Amino acid sequence: MTEALAQTAGIAAASGFSENARPLFLLSAIQKMKFFGAARPEDEILLSAERVATVGELWQFAVKARVGERVIAEGQIVLNLTSKNSAPELE
């Protein structure tokens, strides 16, 4: 669930850039993550991320996962904005 919320924050962050100029966002911190219930395999999970702060290259998002109206997880995700050229190479 945390990974899905971090990916959602990354998508939200990247959506503000043109497709050709999208920077890379790396997960920097997971804060205040709370889990209130489980999702069953047939459940549709609605994920949301809203940017709440920016300090330099760090972007903080409030994230939430819902099944219907029931909140099953929420917290804060911090992403580090980096250029694709300065990111470590992944093999």
What is shown here, in short?
By secondary structure, this protein is mainly beta. It is built from 1 helix and 4 strands; from the N terminus they run αββββ.
Features:
91 residues; mainly beta; Thiol Ester Dehydrase, Chain A; 4 strands
How would you portray this structure in words?
The structure is a single chain. This protein has one helix spanning 2-14, and strands at residues 24-35, 45-55, 58-67, 70-82. With 91 residues, it is mostly beta strands. A four-stranded antiparallel beta sheet has the order 1-4-3-2, covered by helices on one side. It is elongated and about 40 Å long. It starts with a helix and ends in a 9-residue tail after the last strand.
Task: Summarize the topology.
Layout: H1 2-14, E1 24-35, E2 45-55, E3 58-67, E4 70-82
Antiparallel strand pairs: 1-4, 2-3, 3-4
Tally of helical segments: 1
CATH fold category name: Thiol Ester Dehydrase, Chain A
Under the CATH scheme, the architecture is Roll
Using the coordinates above, name the CATH class.
Alpha Beta
Structural category is mainly beta
Helix proportion? 10-25%
